[in-house]
Write a structure and sequence with these properties.
The protein has ten helices and 13 strands. With 295 residues, it is α/β, with parallel strands linked by helices. It has three domains: 84 residues, Winged helix-like DNA-binding domain superfamily/Winged helix DNA-binding domain (Arc Repressor Mutant, subunit A), CATH 1.10.10.10; 100 residues, Periplasmic binding protein-like II (D-Maltodextrin-Binding Protein, domain 2), CATH 3.40.190.10; 99 residues, D-Maltodextrin-Binding Protein, domain 2, CATH 3.40.190. The strands form three sheets. Strands 3, 4, 5, 6, 8, 9, 10, 11 and 13 form a nine-stranded mixed β-sheet that branches. A two-stranded antiparallel ribbon has the order 1-2. α5 links the parallel β3 and β4. The mean pLDDT is 86.
């Protein structure tokens, strides 16, 4: 039994006749008939019922063909993998995107790259608070997507690509603040603040936080957890606006206006990668797709 015999069986079953299969494979009908009989001799049972004008599978043949199709699919994947590896395509690519970034800035590029390089394993990781630059710097990711600050140049030599902007707002549940949306920062200090944990980068510390508050802190690792705590009236804090737009519209959360401090923050989002590394075809294609998405 070999792969060519399984292909012949597949085309005979799919096309419904030896003639149709022979036309598709550019082989003679006798050649296909001999190959099919040889396959049946190898497995020891009849795969097709020849009693009717149109060939059909026997009960045993149906079970065999079901597994044969899986083998052929696996062979196609193996062939694709071999071709891509021979061309120098990366077998694996790791991307880390920060959750402050609106998905519309990168998901389309991810999809196109995944569909183009079907043999590559993609590791899509998410993070917060400088985790993208940290991962690229430490070679844990080949590409990072996140908020960009010029101070990042001090931590490495990076090639960057501007993708758009992030937008952070201060929010809380109406119940926590008795429905009032305008406050002094000093008054908010009596309520718990929900904030993200610092990264391990040497320039990341509490001084880079948007607020200095003596209030109780609830530290979280992602915006969705922050959102759920806010909805549960457990505190106020700064959060990417795209996470809570529906909550704001339905008044489950309210956007706060601070009388003595900035209430909204926006900044640039960039894709970045190390300049001292060679990037393969998959990484280059993804970079171009991200670039095309901004044009």
């Amino acid at each position: 039994m070999n792969v060519e015999q399984l292909k012949i069986l597949h085309y005979i079953v799919e096309d419904g006749s030896l003639k149709a299969a022979s036309d598709r494979m550019s082989k003679t009908q006798p050649a296909l008939s001999i190959a099919l009989k040889k396959l049946e001799a190898d497995v020891g049972f009849a795969i097709v019922d020849r009693s009717d004008y149109r060939l059909k599978l026997t009960a045993q043949g149906s079970l065999f063909y079901r597994q044969a199709k899986q083998v052929l699919r696996d062979m196609d994947r193996l062939t694709t993998l071999s071709d891509q590896l021979a061309q120098g395509d990366e077998p694996e690519l790791t991307i880390l995107f920060e959750l402050a970034c609106p998905p519309s800035l990168y998901l389309d590029a991810f999809l196109k790259t995944q569909q183009r390089f079907t043999a590559t394993q993609f590791n899509f990781n998410s993070g917060i608070r400088f985790s993208s630059i940290e991962s690229v710097q430490q070679n844990n990711a080949q590409l990072g997507i996140g908020p960009w600050f010029h101070i990042f140049h001090s931590s490495g030599d990076f090639q960057t690509l501007s993708l758009g902007h992030y937008h952070l707002v201060v929010a809380a549940s109406p119940r926590l603040l008795s429905g009032q949306s305008s406050h002094h920062l000093s008054k908010l200090s009596q309520y718990p603040i929900i904030t993200t944990r610092e990264s391990e980068l040497n320039f990341d510390n509490e001084k880079l936080s948007a607020f200095k508050s003596g209030s109780q802190q609830c530290r979280v690792t992602d915006p969705e957890t922050a959102r759920r705590l806010m909805l549960n009236h457990m505190g106020w804090g700064m959060i990417p606006k795209h996470y809570i737009e529906q909550d704001l519209q339905e008044k489950r959360l309210i956007q706060l206006e601070l009388k003595d401090f900035e209430s909204e923050f926006s900044g640039e989002i960039r894709a970045f990668r190390r300049n001292d590394k060679t990037h393969g075809p998959v990484a280059e294609y993804l970079w171009q797709m991200l670039k095309d998405n901004t044009d």
